[in-house]
UniProtKB/TrEMBL annotation:
Protein name: AB hydrolase-1 domain-containing protein
PANTHER family: EPOXIDE HYDROLASE
Pfam families attached to this UniProt entry: Abhydrolase_1
Alphabetized InterPro entries for the sequence: AB_hydrolase_1 (IPR000073), AB_hydrolase_fold (IPR029058), Epox_hydrolase-like (IPR000639)
Length: 355
């Protein structure tokens, strides 16, 4: 098995750095895994190891604001324009001009921004939970698709996205709640799905401005009252230490730029001709894509779109790594066969016999 290496690249006049993990043959097809909120590069360990084992060059950065990457308490560092600058520096550091980009949560917003701003750098795009043409376009990218039968506008103005508005209105208070028990928060988000939630009932995140996080808990649940994590102990420990190093201020600042992100990504050609995969999380009620209209913009924009569903909640690659890996690898071998390791040298042919 290939060892996981640590690298870093500086950019923005050497004022910022991105730390990233890399594994697999250096000349293998490049796949970049982009995490969301909250996560760090190490949470992709199962994907890094699997892709490296079949010959890909797999890398995962600590996104700006996380882990060992630059994590300044400067809100402007976390708008999509600044993040994309870092992603282009990351790509350049690999010596490549393009890659397969795989994103989850805010990572999907970032990879979508990369696809809009630098389509030549994207051989294929994979979004998990958060569709293309949503969060990278600011409020207008997702708020119009709230299911008003579940979230009447007079009671739930921002629908399940109320927690995002809470960041804009009460940022320091919101961050302080998470920072009060970072280990508990990390383990809470890494829990396995044990019950199937009711899609017809309002999500607790639709009430954050009224009652607070997690249905009004005064502080996050502590690690000793939570069940086993869905990720290995060593990954959870590393992830927790990463988050304790930075706290939640910097990663949460991604939520402060909806208007600016809309100006950055709006008005551009959003049609994608590359192969695109969307991975639905069956029990994700915040980014609910199975019965809502949230996928409409992605379906309209992508001419070669594949969709697959994993029986998990929002952190699906924590919870169901084997299923997620299988979906990703099947997509690549079917839709981007020339990028499969060794494809150009293998001489692989298929003959259909006439019986």
């Amino acid at each position: 098995m290939s060892a996981i290496e640590h690298h870093e690249v500086t950019y923005a006049g050497d004022s910022k750095k991105i730390h990233y993990l890399a594994t697999g043959p250096t000349d293998g097809p490049l796949v970049i895994f982009i995490h969301g909120w909250p996560a760090t590069a190490i949470t992709w360990k199962a994907q890094l190891e699997t892709f490296a084992s079949v010959g890909f060059r797999a890398i995962a950065p600590d996104m700006p604001g996380y882990g060992q990457s630059t994590s300044r308490r400067v809100a402007d560092d976390y708008c999509q324009e600044a993040i994309v600058e870092g992603m282009m520096a990351l790509l350049a550091d690999t010596g490549r001009k393009a890659a397969v980009w795989i994103g989850h949560d805010w990572g999907s917003g970032v990879t979508s921004s990369v696809a809009v701003q630098h389509p030549e750098a994207v051989k294929a795009l994979v979004s998990m939970c958060v569709p293309y043409s949503t969060v990278e376009l600011g409020w207008d990218g997702f708020l119009p698709f709230v299911n008003r039968e579940i979230y009447p506008a007079d009671e739930y103005e921002y629908g399940q996205w109320d927690y995002m508005k809470n960041y804009e209105e009460n940022f320091e208070k919101a961050v302080a709640w998470f920072d009060s028990d970072i280990a508990g928060v990390c383990k809470a988000f890494a829990q396995k799905t044990t019950t199937k939630p009711d899609r017809k009932a309002p999500n607790p995140l639709s009430k954050v401005r009224k009652i607070g996080w997690m249905n009004g808990l005064p502080k996050p649940p502590s690690v000793d009252v939570l069940g086993p994590a869905a990720i290995p102990d060593d990954v959870l420990e590393s992830f927790t230490k990463d988050m304790q190093k930075t706290g939640f201020w910097t990663g949460s600042a991604y939520y402060l730029h909806h208007k600016r992100n809309a100006e950055y990504n709006g008005g551009r050609d959003r049609k994608l001709k590359q192969p695109v995969l969307f991975v639905h999380a069956q029990w994700d009620l915040v980014c609910e894509t199975k019965e809502s209209r949230l996928m409409e913009g992605m379906r309209e924009a992508c001419s070669n779109l594949t969709e697959v569903t994993v029986d998990a909640a929002h952190f699906l690659y924590f919870e169901k790594p084997a299923e997620v890996n299988a979906a990703l690898l099947r997509f690549l071998v079917q839709e981007l066969p020339d990028e499969w390791p060794g494809a150009s040298e293998s001489g692989y042919t298929k003959t259909k016999a006439v019986l």
